[in-house]
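Minutes, project check-in
Item: structure for the 346-residue chain
Input as provided by the requester:
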Amino acid sequence: MSGKQNYINHVALVLDASSSMSHLSGKVIDVADQQIAYLARRSEELDQETRVTVYVFANKVECVIYDKDVLRMPSLKQMYRTGGMTALLAATLQSQRELAQTAQLYGDHSFLTFVLTDGQENASHRCPGAPSKDPRVLVDSVAEMIETQQDNWTLAVLVPDQMGKREAMRCGFPKDNIAIWDATSTQGLEEAGQVIREATEKFMVGRTKGIRGSRAVFSTGAEAVNKDTIKAAGLTPLDSAGYQLVPVARETAIREWVTESGHTYRTGCAFYQLSKSEKIQARKQIAVLEKKSDRVYSGPEARALLGLPDAEVRVKPDHNDDFTIFVQSTSVNRKLVPNTRLLVMI
């Protein structure tokens, strides 16, 4: 029997339960339970099956829930207890290796893991099953594992500071899959939960557009765009006869500049270059320009590529050497920025 394949998401939370997390333990349970409730709601709304795995780590790594239907998940109240050191690398390795044994039959399977830690690795070499007692070998093992993961794997980590970010990058985590959170307060953990939810939303909406994994799960903006992500999103270039790129010579209203350039202004026909951080509404279309070829890509997949949810969201222009982001304008008097370009659909 044929038909569209089921989307099946395997989402894992790998949670630091070392002693230093004890002042946040109640909040960790709240944030994890909220994430699971959110996953359950969005899975039903987007018609995606989601299965949840939870690991906790301190001196050793323990899988407390494995690949369980998100609609049947219990609270983590009885499963999260703090105490001990931080076996961060062992937890990362074990979670990914064990999840890799999950069957991927009959469906479009995708794996998304969030590792949350408030400190530095200091205990993996003592863990049973660790590949080595040598910390350098452990780092290399994680880096090699990440490098060789398939395109339907997304591994992200939340660390407490810049030092943690440098360490995560040394371990091979893609830089846009690393977020810094404030590990000193419950407010910081609440905000970390929000970051995880936004990244999950981006992932699940992307799934509906054919994106199977991400190496820029925490980025929304130009930094998420490259040749590989464009290909993964299934974007094809628009016919070059259907649009024109017009240099903007002075600050002027968008309708005025479109008509001065010899085109008829229709609402929504013009896209301005994203040049500053701003809010983009759910209905606004996005176009992506490849600088060296002037090829333009657009469509719903372009929003998913930038990690834009189907809601108003703030986007930053982020420097990108190869691509420029354009946003549809539905206003007649939006002020254009000199020395940018305007994309006009003919």
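Outcome recorded: The mean pLDDT is 90.
No further action items on this chain.
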